[in-house]
Structure formats: C-alpha cells, structure tokens
UniProtKB/TrEMBL annotation:
The keyword Lipid metabolism applies. It comes from Alloalcanivorax venustensis ISO4. A motif (GXSXG) lies at residues 48-52. This is PNPLA domain-containing protein. The active site is at S50 (nucleophile), D163 (proton acceptor). Signal peptide: none annotated. Keywords: Hydrolase, Lipid degradation, Lipid metabolism.
Length: 306
C-alpha cells in the first residue's frame, strides 16, 4: 500500500487534565504540564482544585514558564513574607500571594481563553460543589484555595467559598463535563495521611534574628513538639489530609480517569512551598515514567488523523 493510501487514524481524543489539591505538593503540576507539552501532547481542558486551580490558571493564561521560574526561587523567608496573617476565617488571607501573582502575570477572563478551564470550590453555606468557569482566572483559582484553618474563605458571587478539596480533591468529573474524552489525573492525596502542615524551619537569609525569632515563635505555638500534644497546625493538617484522602478514593473509584499520576513526595509538608524545585522535577520525571500509558490513550502526537 502506497503512502497516499495509508488510512488516516481517527480524530485525536480531547485531552483533559484534572489537577488535584495538595498544597505545596501541587508544584508538581508544573513539571507534569511542562513534560506533557514537550512531548507534543495538546491539552484541551484543564480542571483544577485548590493548588491545582492556581497552577492550572497560570497554564491556561500562558504564564506557566514564568510562574515555574518564580516559584523555584522561593525561600522560606519569601513564603513567610507572602503570608498576610489574620484570624478571621483562617490564618492567611491570601491577598498578598494572589496580588503578587496578578502583578507579575495577566489575569484574563476564562471565557477568552483558548483552552477550557474550570475550578472547583465549596459553597460554605450549602456544602455544595461549585464549578467556576467564568470571570477572571485568578478569582476562580482563589475561590478554590480556601483551605480550612489556613486560608480565609473568599466571597464569590455573594457566596463564601471554601477549598474545593473538601468535595472534589481530584476533579475528574469536571474535566469530563467540560468535554474531555481522556482524563489525565494528578492525585496529590495518596501520601497525605501523616504529613504535617509546616516544617519548623526558619526563613533563610533574614536581615536580622527578628525574622527567625518570629518564625520560630509561630511554629512553636502552632506545631507539636516531640512527645507533646499535637499543635494547631498538626491538627488542621492531619484532619484535612485524612478527609481528602478518603474523599479522593471514593470519587476516583466512581469516576476513574484514564491515567492517574501520583507524585512521590511523601516527605513534603503542606507548607513546604519553598521546595518547589523538588516537586517540579518529580512531576517531570513522573510523566517520563508513565509516557507509554499516556501515549496509549492520547495517541502519538505526530500521527496523521482525520
């Protein structure tokens, strides 16, 4: 059979990414997306919960490379500086972090994006799962990131929103609803149980001992000491981890993705945002390890299709 007579393959499936919640472990999403793009895999739909909503928002806005380069530079002092402490609904308001991100990157409306994008949040009053697929990208991401006890809730369309991980930690269902034929899910919750919220590591490179002293006082108050009762951070982290692990198992059993990627970051605490380089590199390696499974579902990127 001549080359011209070779039959064309069926049209490629619409590929969706379900980027799960998991706080600092979510930097692995960056490496996963970068590895998929390098292999020519076109992503049509992005659904994100919590940190997955933030990274997904950077990706669909065209700012993933710059965002990844920035988070790789974060130190514990930088992370500490981005926290705007409050005790009104949470320990951190989150305005500094998202305000800083908005200054560095664009914040387009979801309706104007080339890719379909949706974030998952939880209505605080009704407990219902809310999908946000309109309006500014960062608003949709911030509404999904209100981790109970840590980030304050956000009011969105007159409703107070909590973290989407409370109801749908790995949003496979949202990716399918927005048109994905094949869903690649990133589950950050498989190794969460037993992880703590923050390592007791003071900020590096402080101008004086004041920075270190403040960090140490805060972690001493909020975290448990060896052999002592659990601290505030430990209770919050363990409770959220257990809940999200159980919900993830249930949701993914009922609606399994075609490909599940689980970053091996068991030693990551939830607030280890300064270890972005490790998480991004693990995400990249994860795609390398599962390349065969991914191509089996999405097809070779250079194949001739109808």
């Amino acid at each position: 059979m001549s080359e011209k007579e070779q039959p064309l393959l069926p049209a490629r499936p619409r590929v969706g990414l379900a980027l799960g919640s998991g706080s600092a472990r979510g930097w692995a999403h960056i490496g996963i997306i970068q590895a998929l793009e390098e292999r020519g895999i076109e992503i049509d739909v992005v659904a994100g919960t919590s940190i997955g909503a933030l990274v997904g928002g950077a990706y669909v806005s065209g700012a993933l490379k710059e965002f990844g380069d920035w988070v790789r530079t974060l130190t514990t002092k930088d992370v500490f500086g981005l926290m705007d402490f409050t005790f009104s609904g949470g320990v951190v308001k989150g305005e500094k972090l998202f305000g800083f991100f908005e200054k560095l990157h664009s914040n387009p409306n979801i309706e104007d994006l080339e890719k379909r994008f949706v974030t998952v949040a939880t209505d605080m009053k009704s407990g219902r799962e809310v999908w946000i697929s309109k309006g500014p990208v960062l608003d949709a991401a911030r509404a999904s990131c209100a981790l109970p006890g840590l980030f304050s809730p956000l009011q969105h369309q007159r409703r107070w929103m909590l973290d989407g991980g409370l109801v749908n930690p790995v949003p496979v269902s949202a990716a399918r609803a927005f048109g994905a034929d094949v869903v690649i899910a990133v589950n950050l919750n498989a190794q969460l149980v037993g992880a703590h919220l923050s390592r007791q590591t003071p900020p590096e490179g402080g101008d004086s001992d004041e920075d270190r002293s403040l960090w140490q006082k805060m972690t001493h108050y909020f975290s448990s000491q060896d052999g002592g009762p659990p601290g505030f951070f430990d209770v919050v982290a363990s409770s959220v981890n257990i809940m999200q692990d159980r919900i993830t198992r249930s949701r993914m059993a009922g609606d399994p993705p075609e490909v599940t990627l689980i970053p091996l970051l068991e030693d990551f605490a939830l607030m280890d945002f300064h270890r972005a380089g490790e998480a991004i590199d693990e995400g990249y390696r994860l795609v390398e390890r599962h390349e065969g499974d991914i191509f089996a579902w999405v097809g070779a990127p250079d194949a001739d299709r109808v």
